[in-house]
Design a protein that fits this description.
It is a single chain. With 183 residues, the chain is mainly α. The chain has one domain (3-180). 50% of the residues lie in helices and 11% in strands. A hairpin with a 5-residue loop joins β4 (104-108) and β5.
Length: 183
Amino acid sequence: MDIRNFVTNLQQVYQEIESEFSGFQLKTGITCPSGCGKCCLNPEIEATMLEMLPMALEIYDSGEAQVYLEKLENHLDQSCLVLRDSSRCDFYRSRPAICRMFGVAGYHLKNSSKTLSVCKELKPGNSDLFNQKDFIQSAPEFSQGSAKLLALDMGLISPKYKINHALKLALEKVLLYAQYNKV
């Protein structure tokens, strides 16, 4: 595997996911509150190692891989390590899929009906809209983004880890790859 080509392909999938979710935002007029970043402060946010590879490669390219690995050792169960000032991501361009999926997304229940996962910051003032059948049906789905990631590499799409743990694993993978291959 050529890690740079893999990350390029992953970034293309990210652009598709981001386009779908931002298109939904534009169509509905519902956006994250300016400067919010509360989801980034949640230490329970999960990602896969695959999702974190672009960020890990960017950190490696910056020459900061060892510094970040050391920071991550003591930060695994805390909020996202790359968050600065409670609402700014130091690696926004290479953020994982979960960070690209806007705070309103659909998912299917066991009975196959579609429902929404909605960020609690967006609920006030929008609850009537979030209960409308047309709105629910038009919402992009988490599973569509996951399916696109799965198509890239089935082995790296699971398991999910807390975000800092996933970044640590991705950095270790990039460093291991760099030892044995030209990165």
